[in-house]
Specification:
Blueprint: H1 2-24, H2 40-110, H3 114-126, H4 147-157, E1 161-163, E2 175-177, H5 179-198, E3 203-206, E4 211-212, H6 214-220, H7 222-225, E5 227-232, E6 239-241, H8 242-250, H9 259-268, E7 284-287, E8 291-293, E9 303-306, H10 311-316, H11 318-325, E10 331-340, E11 355-365, H12 376-379, E12 383-387, H13 389-393, E13 399-402, H14 403-408, H15 415-430, E14 436-440, E15 452-460, E16 464-475, H16 477-486, E17 492-494, E18 499-501, E19 504-511, H17 512-523, E20 524-529, E21 532-537, E22 548-552, H18 559-573, E23 577-579, H19 585-594, E24 599-603, H20 605-610, E25 612-617, E26 623-627, H21 631-636
Parallel strand pairs: 3-10, 12-14, 22-23, 22-24
Antiparallel strand pairs: 1-2, 4-9, 5-6, 5-7, 8-9, 10-11, 11-19, 12-13, 14-15, 15-16, 16-19, 17-18, 20-21, 24-25, 25-26
Helix pairs in contact: 3-4, 6-16
Length: about 625
């Protein structure tokens, strides 16, 4: 009984507790089973789960908010950093501005002028995308691109002529010649030497030094007279040759005008710096000679100069050359060599350089026999376009006049002068150069040593008439000056007249670099084939860098072996021969046309059976079959 009562008592206690719990849980709908056992465990579990879910959502919301706040904070930090960096960059830029301006000025001073500057900049850009040596480097094509610019681009692309030490940013006015340029330049120089020295009986050759004694230049007048007018921009500090600046801006010739007149023209036309429009200074003289020093010390006693012309070495060596050569008057001394002029503003590619090559003759005459010219009758009937001082005053290009008529009318003063002008024209024309005229120097532009000077001028695209060669009557000025400075007699004994005389001199002077460029300009030609532009240099075969190129049709079936055999034999007779087996025949023809190769030889399957080849002529494109043994003879014609 006791146990039963105890159990009932426990049940009653449980019911009472359940009732109390029902009252407490009334709001949540809690239930109790028949035995008074609460279902609160399940409800509690659900409630706890709901609370956990709610807490999780709250935590997730808090996490998202925190993340958003962190992102916003990071964005704000990035913006603040960027702002601070911009401010720092701005300050750094302001600090660097003076240095940048100085660097820009230095860059402008080192850049070649006008067309040369554009060509070099373009070449540097093209250099990033150069093709292999078998394929020409591409250059941008523009419809407005001038012929001069096209030829400059060709020179740069094919490595004919290019700025020296381009690796380090070239100085303006210094150029190197690549493989084709070297051959072309030597061919022109060799033609000149053969024509004016080797084929004559009255000419001696000389090769003098390029560094010479300073007293030579004192005697010649170069210390005081070899000057150009210089102006400087007060803003960017760029320097310009004043007469060139006037010619460029006003399109007028100012050769030989005084410095005072230069300043008057600049002031009258309010000329400013072409780069920054800054105000120009007054003109001052600038001596063009490069100074150096001999030996270990750098003082006045060791000062020397790079020669600004080849002529003075000839004059200084005149007495020795006369004795060694055993030549009676008249006779000449010829020289090919480098000269150096510290040009204020070198420009127009190789037309005006700081280092260049001259081909000069000093022809010595008895002072009373300037008209005693045996060769004059041969050239008297020849005609040339002649622009006299009078023509220039009237703004005319000149008129065609015979040399005999020019002498009779006193237009050209002496027969020997006329003879050398005619001889120069004849040689130019032998290389295919024809757009030429003779221009007389007006009195204001005559050099201090000259009694009469005539230029052979070429009519350049865009530039107009420019000097290609000059022929001056230097009288006896140079020999007398050197006699005075050295204290030594420079006269010679003339056997014909039995007297001692100081010879007079006619000087034909040629600039080799500008002549090479003129020949390239004159030979340049473009055509269109099958919608594609083709470039051709119609150089005279005598001066072309390569005379002939040998091609195998295919590099198989023994064609390449046969082609190399023919090439090796041909090269013995014609050293300037080339072998090319790369690319199609059409591409090979185009490559050779672009560098002016007159003939191309193709070895095909018929060559293996009948020993004949196809020879293609550059200018006409005509192709013929000839025997292998006839190739050298055909090309030498």
């Amino acid at each position: 009984m006791t146990g039963r009562r105890a159990r009932k008592r426990q049940e009653c206690v449980g019911i009472l507790k359940a009732g109390a719990e029902v009252k407490r849980m009334g709001k949540t709908g809690g239930k109790v089973n028949a035995r008074g056992v609460t279902l609160m465990n399940k409800e509690n579990k659900k409630q706890k789960q709901v609370e956990k879910t709610r807490e999780a959502k709250n935590e997730e919301s808090k996490s998202e908010a925190n993340q958003n706040n962190q992102k916003q904070k990071e964005q704000n930090q990035t913006q603040n950093n960027a702002q601070r960096q911009n401010e720092a960059n701005k300050k750094q830029k302001e600090q660097n501005q003076p240095q940048n301006e100085a660097n820009q000025k230095q860059k402008e001073q080192n850049q070649p002028q006008n067309n040369t500057q554009k060509a070099e900049a373009k070449q540097k850009e093209e250099g990033k995308n150069r093709e292999s040596s078998d394929s020409p480097r591409p250059s941008p094509k523009r419809e407005t691109e001038s012929k001069i610019q096209k030829v400059i681009n060709l020179c740069l692309r094919r490595g004919i002529i290019f700025p020296s030490a381009e690796l380090y940013g070239s100085f303006g006015g210094f150029f190197d010649y690549g493989p084709m340029g070297v051959e072309l330049k030597r061919n022109v120089a060799n033609s000149w030497w053969r024509n004016f020295v080797q084929e004559r009986e009255d000419m001696l050759g000389l090769d003098g030094t390029t560094i010479t004694h300073p007293r030579i230049w004192k005697a010649s007048g170069h210390m005081t007279e070899f000057n150009d007018p210089l102006v400087e921009c007060g803003k960017c500090k760029q320097r310009f040759r004043a007469d060139h600046l006037i010619e460029q801006e006003l399109k007028i010739s100012v050769d030989g005008i005084s410095i005072q007149k230069v300043d008057e023209l600049i002031a009258e036309h309010k000329l400013a710096c072409p780069n920054c429009k800054g105000e120009l200074s007054e003109s001052r003289v600038f001596n063009l000679m490069f100074k150096t020093f001999i030996g270990a010390t750098e003082d006045a006693a060791s000062t020397a100069y790079l020669r600004p012309e080849t002529a003075q070495v000839i004059f200084a060596d005149f007495k020795q050359m006369h004795q060694i050569g055993r030549k009676a008057l008249p006779f000449g001394i010829a020289q090919i060599g480098r000269a150096y002029r510290n040009e204020i503003s070198p420009r127009n590619f190789v037309f005006r350089c700081r280092e260049f090559e001259q081909m000069e003759i000093e022809f010595f005459l008895h002072p009373q026999k300037l008209d005693d010219c045996p060769g004059f009758e041969e050239i008297a009937s020849e005609k040339a376009l002649v622009c006299t001082a009078e023509h220039q005053e009237k703004g005319k290009e000149g008129e065609e006049i015979g040399f005999g008529e020019a002498i009779r009318k006193g237009i050209i003063k002496t027969r020997w002068h006329a003879y050398w002008l005619a001889s120069s024209l004849k040689w130019f024309k032998s290389m295919g150069l024809n757009k030429l005229r003779l221009r007389q120097h007006v009195s204001t532009e005559l050099s201090h040593y000259s009694k009469e000077t005539w230029d052979v001028e070429y009519n350049y695209p865009e530039w107009g008439w420019k000097e290609l060669q000059g022929t001056a009557n230097r009288t006896d000025f140079d020999l007398k000056q050197h006699s005075k400075e050295s204290g030594k007699d420079m006269s010679v004994f003339d056997e014909a007249t039995k007297e001692k005389v100081t010879p007079h001199v006619i000087e034909p002077s040629f600039g080799l670099d500008r002549l090479v460029f003129s020949l390239l300009l004159d030979a340049y030609e473009e055509s269109e084939e099958n919608g594609e532009k083709k470039t051709r240099l119609k150089l005279h075969p005598s001066i072309a860098p390569l005379k002939v190129a040998v091609f195998p049709l295919m590099k198989k079936d023994g064609l390449d072996e046969k082609a190399k055999e023919i090439y090796r034999e041909l090269k013995k007779a014609i050293p300037q021969s080339a072998y090319d087996s790369s690319g199609s025949i059409g591409k090979r023809y185009a490559r050779m046309d672009e560098i002016g190769t007159p003939y191309c030889i193709t070895i095909d399957y018929d060559t293996l059976t009948d020993d004949t080849v196809t020879i293609r002529e550059r200018d006409s494109g005509e192709q013929k079959r000839i025997k292998v043994k006839e190739i050298a003879k055909k090309i030498s014609l």
